[in-house]
Amino acid sequence: MPGRSLPSANRYARAIFEIALGAGSIDAWGDDLTKMAIACGNAELLAFLEAPGVTDDEKAQAVRGVLPDISDGARNMLSRLIARRAATLLPRIRSRYQELVDAERGVRRVRVATAVPLTDAERSRVVDELGRTLDGGIVLTETVDPSLLGGMLVRVGDRVLDGSVKGRLASLRRSLARGAAQ
């Protein structure tokens, strides 16, 4: 629909978070949001749910068939999203919801890229050190990027800490270029 704007994923996530927090069902809502985001990631299902010729009862029956074990609250929220043709927001709602949960629990999500996989001892040391530095619990996501040559690249939110050999070489190259230009 031209001119139609989708509701804010942030607004939905915040409302769901407040409901979940009040009901003590933060993890259950997180699970339901994950299931709904995965289901609505299926293009065929999403097209069916947003088709104008499909009745609300048929849509509800499809949702019950695909997502039989989500809560009634989650099912109602999904119905509202479908009615507004906003089910495509579910991945962003889920992501923002997780950010709110993490903030409530004092958890930081950290992405670490290394040239080779971390050993268990290295992983433990990284988590402990980052936990002390960032003053909180850490959820670590690891990736292997051989182009880093060595060291690691740490991302916390929008901050990047580059301790990789590749990053150090690039920094050295810039320093040498500045020195040669003077």
Account of the protein in words:
The protein contains 8 helices and 4 strands, in the order ααααααβαβββα. With 182 residues, it is an alpha+beta fold. The protein folds into 2 domains: 9-102, N-terminal domain of the delta subunit of the F1F0-ATP synthase (Peroxidase, domain 1), CATH 1.10.520; 106-181, no CATH class. The protein has a 4-stranded mixed sheet. Strand 1, helix 7 and strand 2 (137-144) form a beta-alpha-beta unit. Helix 2 (26-40) packs antiparallel against helix 6.
Alpha carbon gap, first and last residue:
58 Å
Main sheet, how many strands, which sense, barrel? 4 strands, mixed
Number of strands: 4
Kindly estimate the percentage of residues that lie in beta strands according to DSSP.
5-15%
Order of helices and strands: HHHHHHEHEEEH
Task: Please specify the SSE layout and strand pairing.
Layout: H1 9-23, H2 26-40, H3 43-50, H4 56-66, H5 72-83, H6 90-105, E1 107-114, H7 120-134, E2 137-144, E3 152-156, E4 159-162, H8 165-181
Helix pairs in contact: 1-2, 1-6, 2-6
In short:
With 182 residues, this protein is α+β, with helices and mostly antiparallel strands.
Which key terms come to mind for this protein?
single chain; 182 residues; alpha+beta; Peroxidase, domain 1; 2 domains; four-stranded mixed beta sheet; 60% helix; elongated
